[in-house]
Amino acid sequence: MISTVIGIYTFYIVVRLYVSVMQIGYINQMKRKAAVLMGEKEYRDAAAYAVAKEKLSMLEGFIEYGLFLAWIGGMVAWLDGAMMSQNETFHTIGAVMGLILINGLVMLPLGWYAKFKIDARFGFNRSSGRQFIKDTLISTLLTIIFGSLVVWGVASIIGSSEHWWVWSFAFIMTVVIAINMFFPTIRALFFDKVTPLEDPELKNSIEELMAKTGFVSSGVFISDASKRDARLNAYFGGLGKSKRVILFDTLIQKLSKSELIAVLGHELGHFAHGDLYKNIAMVGMMLFGMFALFGNVPESLYLEMGVAHSPHIVMMLFILLLPVVSFFIMPLFGLMSRHNEYEADRSGAELGGAEHLVNALKKLVSENKSFPLSHPLYRFFHTTHPPVIERLRALGADIRVETSEGYSDPCPND
């Protein structure tokens, strides 16, 4: 059984690396053609940035594979034995959180390299080493506290019910919903400083926009995200009365008022169409399948690993194999998400004007150095948004892309 599990994970890594290789080759081919949506230099920089990130992703894949083989080949049994506590609860929490923290520690240098080498090279990183350490420590502490509570909850359910996987699924879905509700508050408390929007004209425009879609918010806030990163972003966070509109200060600096209203119109389109709830439902489907699978793992796998069929071992296997399931479910999620993005663009065009949304999307592509083209396989497995070229065309913009046959109207990603 253990050889079957390793074979499945190996297949996942091979597919993942193959997709990355195809993406890198495609970008290197297209960057030599006429620039799209950007100036020539910006276009080449965006291509170089995309390739650098993809190469780092490939390195992460190799390390992830090595970690998996180490865990499945003996480290799970070693960590299980290293937890000497006589208290079963502490044993369970220590083993599961130990796996999470060890993996995080191994991957930490890659996170540092991404921020202080790749992002710094392309002008995104504004964080200091001290800020990086502080953020890492806070994230780790929050992971330990809340992760331990979740592990304790799932372990209690496993130990008390024959159909534990059904109740564990319900518990984790409750956690997912709670995270969506309180994420803006937690982020504001520990990471970004948020302050109420002071521009009365912009605030009134945003509130009028929200009223048109029935979006009730606890306020419109500005995040000081520029102290860490130069990219543009905005999001609507929370559920129910805890909903907030969060605008990155970088977004306000780069977009005109009309463009900003069009972007927020797009985000409100997601709210009007219930996309957040659709996404939660999709996550629920994935988790239900995962729990059903791990609720029926053959006993032979535990025997071959040299461990007992205990709650913490079940959770450790769940964590180790979650990337595989997520990777192969992502195409289904991406298909739904890309459809939702087109619908949200229509709402943005209706609420803020198609011309303004087109201009805003072009600025976002340029400022965030988002290479506008991608290989079909990469889009299939990874992207939640349609190609920006197709989004712009759907909004009425005339965009042409150079191919080996000349200039084409259809997007080469189709």
Number of beta strands: 6
Return residue spans where pLDDT drops below 50 for at least 5 consecutive residues.
Answer: 409-414
- Bulk shape: globular
The domain count comes to 1
Please compute the radius of gyration using only Cα atoms.
23 Å
Oligomer description: single chain
Account of the protein in words:
About 70% of the residues lie in helices and about 5% in strands. It has about 425 residues and is mostly helical. The protein has one domain (about 1-410). The chain has a 4-stranded mixed β-sheet with strand order 1-2-4-3. Strands 5-6 form a two-stranded antiparallel ribbon. A hairpin with a 6-residue loop joins β3 and β4 (about 245-250). The longest helix has about 45 residues, at about 40-80. It is globular and about 65 Å long. The model is unreliable at about 410-414 (pLDDT under 50).
Characteristic key phrases:
414 residues; mainly alpha; 4-stranded mixed β-sheet; two-stranded antiparallel ribbon; 14 helices; 6 strands; globular; disordered C terminus
What would you say about this model in short?
The chain has 14 helices and six strands. The protein has 414 residues and is mainly α.
What is the secondary structure topology, with strand pairs?
Layout: H1 2-30, H2 40-82, H3 88-121, H4 129-160, H5 164-190, E1 194-196, H6 200-213, E2 220-223, E3 234-237, E4 244-248, H7 249-254, H8 257-272, H9 275-294, H10 299-305, H11 311-352, H12 354-367, H13 376-382, H14 388-394, E5 401-403, E6 406-408
Parallel strand pairs: 2-4
Antiparallel strand pairs: 1-2, 3-4, 5-6
Helix pairs in contact: 1-2, 1-11, 1-13, 2-3, 2-11, 3-4, 3-11, 4-5, 5-9, 6-8, 8-11, 8-12, 9-11, 11-12, 11-13
